[in-house]
Amino acid sequence: MIDFDVIIIGGGVIGCMTARALSRYQLKVLLIEKESDIGMGASSANSAIIHAGHDPLPGSLKAEMNIKANPMWDQLSADLGIPFKRTGAYIVAIGDEDCECLDSLLQRGRENGVACEIISAEEMRNREPLINPQVSGALFTPTAGMVDPFAACIAPLENAIENGVQVKLETAFLSFLTKDGSLTGIHTNQGDFNCHWVINAAGVYSDEILRQADPESTFTIIPRKGEYYILDKSEIQLNNILFPVPSAVSKGILVLGSTHGNVLVGPNSTIEEDREDKAVTAKGLNEIWLGAQKLVPTLQPGSIIAVFAGLRASGNAPCPDCSIDYKHDFLIEACTQLKGLINLAGIESPGLTASPAIAERVIEILQQEGLKMDLKENWNPIRKARPRFHHLSMAEQKQLLKKDPRYGRVICRCEMVTEGEIIAEIHAPLPARTYDAIKRRTWLGTGRCLGSFDMPRVIELLADETCQPVTSITKKGPGSEFLFRLTKKVEA
Hints:
Blueprint: E1 4-9, H1 13-22, E2 29-32, E3 49-50, H2 61-69, H3 73-80, E4 84-85, E5 89-94, H4 96-111, E6 117-119, H5 121-127, E7 135-141, E8 145-147, H6 151-162, E9 166-168, E10 173-179, E11 182-188, E12 191-200, H7 206-213, E13 224-231, E14 241-244, E15 254-256, E16 263-266, E17 270-271, H8 282-295, E18 304-312, E19 331-334, E20 341-345, H9 351-368, H10 394-403, E21 410-412, E22 417-418, H11 419-426, H12 435-442, H13 455-466
Parallel strand pairs: 1-2, 1-12, 2-9, 5-14, 12-20
Antiparallel strand pairs: 3-8, 4-8, 5-7, 6-7, 10-11, 11-12, 13-16, 13-17, 13-18, 14-15, 15-16, 19-20, 21-22
Helix pairs in contact: 1-6, 1-9, 2-9, 11-13
């Protein structure tokens, strides 16, 4: 007996958007994620940009998916309650040599069908007063924007859950189950699950899963680490996205605002052999700070409140349509060696932007492969965002407090996150069960105190609401428990 029609491996933005796309159809769908929450891989550590699409090589899947997906974000934001701002972005030239590169970037943007224009140094200084006075010009792409990368995972998956998709966390893929050359299911650390189709959206591990199906495959993920600073929103405000002129392997060190109000600095790009190493380095942080100061010389180290790093799932797939031997494209295809497997691999930047278009491509592939896909008559595309008390008007706050007084108890003073918001996330369609899960959903613990004020109370709330002892509450899953015993409890 088949348990599921489709199983998705990986709870990053690609897997979550794919789950929502599949939830429109009369299918039994399961998403598995090896971590304690979704969005804990590359989706939790990126620049949170919706790219215009000027940068990918014309003819590549990156370009096609980027261009198709960019205009989808307005509707996604409205339907799912994802914070999103279409701010535009600037590729900034510093000096004459950089300025010469803008023409080629403009030409590539136009080949990709992206609205873009070169503006003068004077106009750039008018639009962004913090920019390096030595600016020589900039390429402006008005359709670029900022998004909340955590909500971009959580919101579509919650909508998928409300439409019937099942989710299993702390469930790691181990191997395929097959019969006569066709896929029949998967073996995981939580048991076996039968299915017709598997979607491999496993990020930096997608090549390892692919090679279980096709041992002769030469596709390889080459993880690239990117390090970042987060700056205090009370000390610097920036509403623009500032790129330098890009290099051959990276879009360069950015300085940009965010939907949360903080300024973000980074990333660099270094090859990383360890697929779990997200540690920042002194060398890397120095590199991104110097790079950022080329764009905004007035940045001050005293504004730094946090650092983090993420791994890009950079692959070596060739571009199928390019006249040159372009590598590092997306891999989006049905596996020819194992019937029933679709690989979504090498999804680095602009993967966040492209995710809804990639999800639609999965639907197309499944239809082409013959899977019966009847639309649900009662599919609901709307996921209502939960209230953020600090963002409400005074009248809205008063109305909410009448319904639930817990929204009047501030737990995180830096970000003004209330008890009501935390409890709502604990009991959401995709429940937050760790401190970091609540942090990703509410932004608590991201201010100057970095959670030192709110953490004890959040631990208590998690324990009370989930009926667990406080010693079971973790930061990010098993092995990251906060407490060994109660402070005054003395063991015999």
